[in-house]
Amino acid sequence: FGGGESPEDNEEMFKRFTIDQGKKYGEGGYGATFAAQDTKLGKPAAVKVIDTRRMRKDAIMRETSILESLEHPNVIRVLAHGSGRAEVQQGHLYFIFMEVASGGELFDQVIDNGANAMPEHKARGFMTQLLAGVAHCHKRGVAHRDLKLENVLLTSTGVVKVIDFGLSHVY
Length: 171
Prior knowledge:
29% of the residues lie in helices and 30% in strands. The protein has helices at 7-16, 57-69, 106-112, 120-139, and strands at 17-27, 31-38, 43-51, 78-83, 93-99, 142-143, 152-154, 160-162, 169-170.
């Protein structure tokens, strides 16, 4: 259920997912990420809403194509994506629905320790997962090219998820 570019696919996508615009996870130069719900499965999700007036559609399609090619426990998974509906003044928006990683950014875990170093066993666990996700990307010929603590999220159970493949490249 990806690539939804036909009106029928998009209509199904918006029937399947609901968006909670009151709960924003983050914001970037091209759009924002909000809480969402997969009503079909009854599971939480997240949605990245990108303004196509700020980011070229071909770049968005490249990012979603790369994400769809990666299937690993330490890489964020795409559930569906497609253009917004013009009839509700969202034709300039592109929606990427993903699994949710509600444990926050790895950045926050590092900062929360302040001047104290993160315990080695905890850091080793995060690093091992991060390297596993990156190794999977490299095996698939994908270079992330924007790895930083803000682009590494955690699930509620502490599983690392590499996100934001907007600057990535396939070799």
